[in-house]
Protein backbone atom coordinates (compact mmCIF):
# COMPACT_ATOMS: atom_id res chain seq x y z
CA UNK A 1 0.00 0.00 0.00
CA UNK A 2 2.89 2.35 0.73
CA UNK A 3 3.82 2.41 -2.96
CA UNK A 4 0.29 3.53 -3.87
CA UNK A 5 0.46 6.41 -1.41
CA UNK A 6 3.88 7.42 -2.65
CA UNK A 7 2.63 7.39 -6.25
CA UNK A 8 -0.16 9.84 -5.45
CA UNK A 9 2.20 12.14 -3.54
CA UNK A 10 4.69 12.07 -6.42
CA UNK A 11 2.03 13.09 -8.95
CA UNK A 12 0.28 15.94 -7.16
CA UNK A 13 1.17 18.57 -9.76
CA UNK A 14 0.12 16.31 -12.62
CA UNK A 15 -3.22 15.67 -10.91
CA UNK A 16 -3.80 19.38 -10.46
CA UNK A 17 -3.01 19.99 -14.11
CA UNK A 18 -5.62 17.44 -15.22
CA UNK A 19 -8.14 18.96 -12.78
CA UNK A 20 -7.54 22.40 -14.27
CA UNK A 21 -7.80 21.04 -17.81
CA UNK A 22 -11.16 19.34 -17.17
CA UNK A 23 -12.68 22.34 -15.36
CA UNK A 24 -11.46 24.62 -18.17
CA UNK A 25 -13.49 22.67 -20.74
CA UNK A 26 -17.07 23.91 -20.47
CA UNK A 27 -19.32 20.86 -20.40
CA UNK A 28 -22.81 21.83 -19.37
CA UNK A 29 -25.31 19.06 -20.06
CA UNK A 30 -26.29 20.67 -23.39
CA UNK A 31 -22.73 21.41 -24.49
CA UNK A 32 -22.18 18.24 -26.49
CA UNK A 33 -18.89 19.46 -27.94
CA UNK A 34 -17.35 20.07 -24.53
CA UNK A 35 -18.53 16.75 -23.08
CA UNK A 36 -17.31 14.84 -26.13
CA UNK A 37 -13.94 16.58 -25.87
CA UNK A 38 -13.57 15.41 -22.26
CA UNK A 39 -14.68 11.87 -23.14
CA UNK A 40 -12.07 11.58 -25.88
CA UNK A 41 -9.32 13.05 -23.69
CA UNK A 42 -10.10 10.51 -20.97
CA UNK A 43 -10.23 7.74 -23.56
CA UNK A 44 -6.65 8.49 -24.54
CA UNK A 45 -5.51 8.60 -20.91
CA UNK A 46 -7.19 5.32 -19.99
CA UNK A 47 -6.09 3.47 -23.11
CA UNK A 48 -2.53 4.31 -22.08
CA UNK A 49 -3.35 2.61 -18.75
CA UNK A 50 -4.19 -0.69 -20.49
CA UNK A 51 -7.95 -0.15 -20.76
CA UNK A 52 -10.23 -1.02 -23.64
CA UNK A 53 -12.54 1.96 -24.11
CA UNK A 54 -15.80 2.43 -26.01
CA UNK A 55 -17.34 5.85 -26.63
CA UNK A 56 -21.14 5.86 -26.92
CA UNK A 57 -22.23 8.78 -29.08
CA UNK A 58 -25.67 10.39 -29.03
CA UNK A 59 -27.20 12.91 -31.40
CA UNK A 60 -28.60 15.23 -28.73
CA UNK A 61 -26.54 14.36 -25.66
CA UNK A 62 -22.92 14.25 -24.62
CA UNK A 63 -21.01 11.03 -25.12
CA UNK A 64 -20.61 8.28 -22.55
CA UNK A 65 -17.34 6.44 -21.92
CA UNK A 66 -17.40 2.77 -20.95
CA UNK A 67 -14.24 0.73 -20.55
CA UNK A 68 -12.52 -2.12 -18.77
CA UNK A 69 -8.95 -2.96 -17.85
CA UNK A 70 -7.38 -5.79 -19.81
CA UNK A 71 -7.51 -8.82 -17.56
CA UNK A 72 -7.05 -12.57 -17.73
CA UNK A 73 -9.34 -14.32 -15.25
CA UNK A 74 -12.94 -14.85 -14.16
CA UNK A 75 -13.28 -12.36 -11.32
CA UNK A 76 -16.09 -9.80 -11.53
CA UNK A 77 -14.95 -6.22 -12.13
CA UNK A 78 -14.98 -3.35 -9.67
CA UNK A 79 -16.84 -0.41 -11.20
CA UNK A 80 -15.75 3.22 -10.93
CA UNK A 81 -18.35 5.66 -12.17
CA UNK A 82 -19.31 9.31 -12.45
CA UNK A 83 -20.34 12.00 -14.92
CA UNK A 84 -18.60 14.49 -17.19
CA UNK A 85 -21.40 17.04 -17.59
CA UNK A 86 -22.09 19.97 -15.27
CA UNK A 87 -25.14 22.15 -14.58
CA UNK A 88 -23.41 25.31 -15.80
CA UNK A 89 -24.28 27.23 -18.97
CA UNK A 90 -21.64 28.31 -21.45
CA UNK A 91 -19.83 31.40 -20.23
CA UNK A 92 -19.64 30.36 -16.58
CA UNK A 93 -15.92 29.67 -16.91
CA UNK A 94 -15.14 33.26 -17.91
CA UNK A 95 -16.71 34.55 -14.71
CA UNK A 96 -15.42 31.74 -12.51
CA UNK A 97 -12.15 30.26 -13.83
CA UNK A 98 -10.21 27.45 -12.20
CA UNK A 99 -8.25 28.95 -9.33
CA UNK A 100 -6.59 27.69 -6.13
CA UNK A 101 -6.81 29.99 -3.13
CA UNK A 102 -6.06 29.26 0.53
CA UNK A 103 -6.39 25.51 0.15
CA UNK A 104 -9.64 25.70 -1.82
CA UNK A 105 -10.15 25.06 -5.53
CA UNK A 106 -12.81 27.00 -7.44
CA UNK A 107 -14.41 26.68 -10.86
CA UNK A 108 -17.63 25.42 -12.52
CA UNK A 109 -18.03 21.71 -11.82
CA UNK A 110 -14.83 21.58 -9.78
CA UNK A 111 -16.35 19.08 -7.33
CA UNK A 112 -19.46 18.04 -9.27
CA UNK A 113 -17.66 16.23 -10.45
CA UNK A 114 -14.44 16.91 -12.31
CA UNK A 115 -12.31 16.50 -9.20
CA UNK A 116 -13.85 13.06 -8.78
CA UNK A 117 -12.84 12.13 -12.31
CA UNK A 118 -9.24 13.07 -11.52
CA UNK A 119 -9.32 10.91 -8.37
CA UNK A 120 -10.74 8.03 -10.42
CA UNK A 121 -8.03 8.30 -13.08
CA UNK A 122 -5.16 8.55 -10.62
CA UNK A 123 -6.45 5.74 -8.42
CA UNK A 124 -6.18 3.58 -11.55
CA UNK A 125 -2.70 4.92 -12.31
CA UNK A 126 -1.64 4.22 -8.71
CA UNK A 127 -2.91 0.64 -8.87
CA UNK A 128 -1.18 0.12 -12.21
CA UNK A 129 2.04 1.36 -10.66
CA UNK A 130 2.06 -1.75 -8.43
CA UNK A 131 0.80 -4.01 -11.24
CA UNK A 132 -2.61 -4.61 -9.63
CA UNK A 133 -4.26 -7.68 -11.22
CA UNK A 134 -6.62 -8.99 -8.55
CA UNK A 135 -9.78 -7.93 -10.39
CA UNK A 136 -10.61 -6.07 -13.59
CA UNK A 137 -11.71 -2.46 -13.20
CA UNK A 138 -14.65 -1.12 -15.17
CA UNK A 139 -15.15 2.58 -15.91
CA UNK A 140 -18.52 4.20 -16.63
CA UNK A 141 -18.45 7.96 -17.22
CA UNK A 142 -21.65 9.64 -18.38
CA UNK A 143 -22.27 12.81 -20.40
CA UNK A 144 -25.87 13.60 -19.43
CA UNK A 145 -26.30 12.68 -15.77
CA UNK A 146 -27.40 16.13 -14.64
CA UNK A 147 -30.45 15.99 -16.93
CA UNK A 148 -31.41 12.41 -16.08
CA UNK A 149 -30.41 10.96 -19.48
CA UNK A 150 -33.34 12.76 -21.08
CA UNK A 151 -31.83 12.64 -24.59
CA UNK A 152 -30.03 9.29 -24.56
CA UNK A 153 -30.86 5.63 -23.95
CA UNK A 154 -28.51 5.33 -20.98
CA UNK A 155 -31.31 4.59 -18.53
CA UNK A 156 -31.59 1.24 -20.34
CA UNK A 157 -27.87 0.77 -21.01
CA UNK A 158 -26.59 1.43 -17.49
CA UNK A 159 -28.32 -1.46 -15.64
CA UNK A 160 -26.85 -3.86 -18.20
CA UNK A 161 -23.38 -2.39 -17.74
CA UNK A 162 -23.47 -2.46 -13.94
CA UNK A 163 -24.86 -5.96 -13.45
CA UNK A 164 -21.61 -7.78 -14.26
CA UNK A 165 -19.75 -5.96 -11.44
CA UNK A 166 -19.12 -6.95 -7.83
CA UNK A 167 -19.09 -3.43 -6.36
CA UNK A 168 -19.47 0.18 -7.47
CA UNK A 169 -17.71 3.33 -6.31
CA UNK A 170 -19.24 6.61 -7.50
CA UNK A 171 -16.88 9.60 -7.40
CA UNK A 172 -19.65 12.16 -6.91
CA UNK A 173 -19.09 15.19 -4.65
CA UNK A 174 -17.62 14.31 -1.27
CA UNK A 175 -19.28 15.69 1.85
CA UNK A 176 -17.51 17.94 4.33
CA UNK A 177 -17.22 15.90 7.51
CA UNK A 178 -16.34 12.63 5.74
CA UNK A 179 -19.83 11.25 5.20
CA UNK A 180 -20.06 8.44 2.64
CA UNK A 181 -23.39 8.10 0.87
CA UNK A 182 -24.83 4.60 1.21
CA UNK A 183 -28.41 5.48 0.29
CA UNK A 184 -30.00 8.03 -2.04
CA UNK A 185 -33.61 8.85 -2.64
CA UNK A 186 -35.12 8.15 -6.02
CA UNK A 187 -36.35 11.13 -8.00
CA UNK A 188 -39.20 11.38 -10.50
CA UNK A 189 -40.48 14.41 -12.38
CA UNK A 190 -44.19 14.59 -13.29
CA UNK A 191 -45.99 17.10 -15.50
CA UNK A 192 -49.60 18.01 -14.65
CA UNK A 193 -51.61 19.85 -17.31
CA UNK A 194 -55.10 21.30 -16.94
CA UNK A 195 -57.25 22.39 -19.88
CA UNK A 196 -60.15 24.78 -19.34
CA UNK A 197 -62.03 27.32 -21.47
CA UNK A 198 -60.85 30.85 -22.18
CA UNK A 199 -63.29 33.73 -21.78
CA UNK A 200 -63.29 37.49 -21.26
CA UNK A 201 -63.08 37.99 -17.50
CA UNK A 202 -65.45 40.97 -17.63
CA UNK A 203 -68.03 40.19 -20.31
CA UNK A 204 -68.17 36.37 -20.35
CA UNK A 205 -66.82 35.30 -16.96
CA UNK A 206 -69.35 32.51 -16.46
CA UNK A 207 -68.51 30.95 -19.82
CA UNK A 208 -64.89 30.47 -18.78
CA UNK A 209 -63.41 27.42 -17.08
CA UNK A 210 -60.42 28.55 -15.05
CA UNK A 211 -57.54 26.10 -15.49
CA UNK A 212 -55.47 27.86 -12.83
CA UNK A 213 -58.24 27.49 -10.25
CA UNK A 214 -58.51 23.78 -11.04
CA UNK A 215 -54.75 23.21 -10.81
CA UNK A 216 -54.61 25.17 -7.53
CA UNK A 217 -56.93 22.63 -5.89
CA UNK A 218 -54.85 19.79 -7.27
CA UNK A 219 -51.56 21.33 -6.09
CA UNK A 220 -52.79 21.26 -2.49
CA UNK A 221 -53.75 17.58 -2.88
CA UNK A 222 -50.33 16.80 -4.35
CA UNK A 223 -48.39 18.54 -1.59
CA UNK A 224 -50.46 16.64 0.99
CA UNK A 225 -49.05 13.35 -0.28
CA UNK A 226 -45.73 14.25 1.37
CA UNK A 227 -44.75 11.92 4.22
CA UNK A 228 -41.56 13.15 5.86
CA UNK A 229 -41.42 10.22 8.29
CA UNK A 230 -41.15 7.64 5.51
CA UNK A 231 -38.90 9.83 3.36
CA UNK A 232 -41.45 10.70 0.66
CA UNK A 233 -41.68 14.29 -0.53
CA UNK A 234 -43.60 15.97 -3.34
CA UNK A 235 -42.79 19.50 -4.43
CA UNK A 236 -44.67 21.52 -7.03
CA UNK A 237 -41.73 23.63 -8.13
CA UNK A 238 -42.96 25.30 -11.32
CA UNK A 239 -46.45 26.56 -12.21
CA UNK A 240 -47.37 28.19 -15.53
CA UNK A 241 -50.69 29.39 -16.85
CA UNK A 242 -52.79 32.23 -18.18
CA UNK A 243 -52.26 34.88 -20.81
CA UNK A 244 -53.61 38.12 -19.30
CA UNK A 245 -55.25 39.36 -16.13
CA UNK A 246 -58.58 39.96 -17.89
CA UNK A 247 -58.77 36.50 -19.50
CA UNK A 248 -60.08 33.38 -17.78
CA UNK A 249 -57.11 31.00 -18.29
CA UNK A 250 -57.70 27.98 -20.48
CA UNK A 251 -54.41 26.24 -19.66
CA UNK A 252 -52.20 25.63 -16.63
CA UNK A 253 -49.18 23.42 -16.08
CA UNK A 254 -47.29 22.27 -12.98
CA UNK A 255 -43.97 20.46 -12.65
CA UNK A 256 -43.80 18.07 -9.71
CA UNK A 257 -40.63 16.75 -8.07
CA UNK A 258 -41.10 13.44 -6.23
CA UNK A 259 -38.49 11.91 -3.89
CA UNK A 260 -38.72 8.41 -2.39
CA UNK A 261 -36.47 5.94 -0.57
CA UNK A 262 -37.74 2.62 -1.91
CA UNK A 263 -38.23 1.68 -5.56
CA UNK A 264 -41.68 0.15 -4.91
CA UNK A 265 -42.94 3.45 -3.49
CA UNK A 266 -42.99 5.10 -6.92
CA UNK A 267 -45.88 2.95 -8.16
CA UNK A 268 -47.95 3.92 -5.12
CA UNK A 269 -47.21 7.63 -5.63
CA UNK A 270 -48.00 7.39 -9.35
CA UNK A 271 -51.40 5.88 -8.60
CA UNK A 272 -52.16 8.65 -6.09
CA UNK A 273 -51.17 11.33 -8.58
CA UNK A 274 -53.42 9.76 -11.21
CA UNK A 275 -56.34 9.82 -8.76
CA UNK A 276 -55.74 13.54 -8.19
CA UNK A 277 -55.58 14.17 -11.92
CA UNK A 278 -58.83 12.26 -12.49
CA UNK A 279 -60.71 14.19 -9.82
CA UNK A 280 -62.50 17.30 -11.12
CA UNK A 281 -63.11 20.34 -8.94
CA UNK A 282 -64.30 22.70 -11.68
CA UNK A 283 -66.74 21.13 -14.11
CA UNK A 284 -65.67 21.51 -17.73
CA UNK A 285 -61.93 21.20 -17.11
CA UNK A 286 -59.77 18.24 -18.12
CA UNK A 287 -56.46 17.13 -16.63
CA UNK A 288 -53.56 15.07 -17.90
CA UNK A 289 -50.51 13.83 -15.99
CA UNK A 290 -47.37 12.04 -17.16
CA UNK A 291 -43.96 11.10 -15.82
CA UNK A 292 -41.19 13.05 -17.54
CA UNK A 293 -38.17 11.31 -16.00
CA UNK A 294 -37.21 8.79 -13.31
CA UNK A 295 -34.02 8.19 -11.35
CA UNK A 296 -34.43 5.14 -9.14
CA UNK A 297 -33.24 5.16 -5.53
CA UNK A 298 -29.80 3.94 -4.55
CA UNK A 299 -30.75 1.44 -1.87
CA UNK A 300 -28.85 -0.32 0.88
CA UNK A 301 -28.68 -3.92 -0.36
CA UNK A 302 -26.76 -7.11 0.43
CA UNK A 303 -23.08 -6.21 0.45
CA UNK A 304 -23.47 -2.46 1.08
CA UNK A 305 -22.54 -2.64 4.76
CA UNK A 306 -19.54 -4.86 4.07
CA UNK A 307 -18.33 -2.54 1.32
CA UNK A 308 -18.62 0.47 3.60
CA UNK A 309 -16.82 -1.35 6.41
CA UNK A 310 -13.87 -2.11 4.13
CA UNK A 311 -13.66 1.56 3.19
CA UNK A 312 -14.03 2.70 6.81
CA UNK A 313 -11.19 0.48 8.04
CA UNK A 314 -9.00 1.53 5.12
CA UNK A 315 -9.59 5.20 5.88
CA UNK A 316 -8.51 4.72 9.49
CA UNK A 317 -5.47 2.74 8.39
CA UNK A 318 -4.47 5.67 6.16
CA UNK A 319 -4.75 8.05 9.10
CA UNK A 320 -7.78 9.83 7.63
CA UNK A 321 -10.94 10.81 9.50
CA UNK A 322 -13.39 7.99 10.18
CA UNK A 323 -16.16 7.93 7.55
CA UNK A 324 -19.81 7.52 8.48
CA UNK A 325 -22.85 6.46 6.48
CA UNK A 326 -25.31 9.03 5.15
CA UNK A 327 -28.65 9.03 3.32
CA UNK A 328 -29.25 11.98 0.96
CA UNK A 329 -32.15 13.26 -1.11
CA UNK A 330 -30.33 13.85 -4.40
CA UNK A 331 -30.05 11.10 -6.99
CA UNK A 332 -27.04 9.66 -8.82
CA UNK A 333 -26.29 6.95 -11.35
CA UNK A 334 -25.19 4.65 -8.51
CA UNK A 335 -28.91 3.82 -8.34
CA UNK A 336 -28.54 1.77 -11.52
CA UNK A 337 -25.98 -0.35 -9.69
CA UNK A 338 -28.08 -1.20 -6.65
CA UNK A 339 -31.20 -1.83 -8.75
CA UNK A 340 -29.40 -4.79 -10.37
CA UNK A 341 -28.06 -6.10 -7.08
CA UNK A 342 -24.55 -4.59 -7.08
CA UNK A 343 -23.69 -2.75 -3.82
CA UNK A 344 -22.50 0.83 -4.21
CA UNK A 345 -20.90 3.64 -2.26
CA UNK A 346 -21.33 7.21 -3.46
CA UNK A 347 -19.94 10.65 -2.68
CA UNK A 348 -16.35 9.42 -2.82
CA UNK A 349 -15.08 12.39 -4.81
CA UNK A 350 -13.38 15.61 -3.76
CA UNK A 351 -14.91 17.11 -0.63
CA UNK A 352 -16.35 20.58 -0.86
CA UNK A 353 -19.47 22.74 -0.77
CA UNK A 354 -21.91 24.79 -2.81
CA UNK A 355 -22.03 22.55 -5.88
CA UNK A 356 -24.33 23.82 -8.66
CA UNK A 357 -23.54 27.43 -7.71
CA UNK A 358 -20.84 29.94 -8.64
CA UNK A 359 -19.47 29.51 -5.08
CA UNK A 360 -18.66 25.83 -5.67
CA UNK A 361 -15.30 24.85 -4.23
CA UNK A 362 -13.30 21.76 -3.34
CA UNK A 363 -10.78 21.20 -0.57
CA UNK A 364 -7.42 20.82 -2.28
CA UNK A 365 -5.98 18.13 -0.02
CA UNK A 366 -9.09 15.98 -0.30
CA UNK A 367 -8.25 15.30 -3.96
CA UNK A 368 -5.14 13.42 -2.88
CA UNK A 369 -6.77 11.85 0.18
CA UNK A 370 -9.72 10.51 -1.77
CA UNK A 371 -7.46 9.16 -4.53
CA UNK A 372 -5.44 7.26 -1.93
CA UNK A 373 -8.58 6.01 -0.18
CA UNK A 374 -10.13 4.73 -3.40
CA UNK A 375 -7.00 2.94 -4.58
CA UNK A 376 -6.30 1.44 -1.15
CA UNK A 377 -9.91 0.25 -0.71
CA UNK A 378 -9.85 -1.45 -4.10
CA UNK A 379 -6.60 -3.13 -3.10
CA UNK A 380 -8.26 -4.54 0.04
CA UNK A 381 -11.44 -5.85 -1.59
* CATH architectural name of the largest domain: 3-Layer(aba) Sandwich
Question: Could you give the order of strands across the largest sheet?
Answer: 1-2-6-3-7-17
Number of domains: 2
Strand content: 25-35%
By CATH's scheme, which homologous superfamily of the largest domain applies? Zn peptidases
Which residues form runs of ≥5 with pLDDT under 50?
Answer: none
Total strand segments: 19
Secondary structure category: alpha/beta
Mean pLDDT across the residues is 97
Helix content: 25-40%
Q: Which sheet architecture does the biggest sheet show? A: 6 strands, mixed
H-E order: HHHEEEHEEHEHEEEEEHEEEHEHEHEEEH
CATH class of the largest domain equals Alpha Beta
What gyration radius follows from the Cα positions, in whole Å?
23 Å
Characterize the overall form. elongated
Q: Would you give the CATH topology of the largest domain?
A: Aminopeptidase
Number of helices: 11
How far is it from the N-terminal to the C-terminal residue, by CA?
Answer: 13 Å
Protein name: M20 family metallopeptidase
Keywords: Hydrolase, Metal-binding
Domain Peptidase M20 dimerisation: 183-284
InterPro entries: Bact_exopeptidase_dim_dom, Pept_M20_glutamate_carboxypep, Peptidase_M20, Peptidase_M20_dimer, Peptidase_M20A
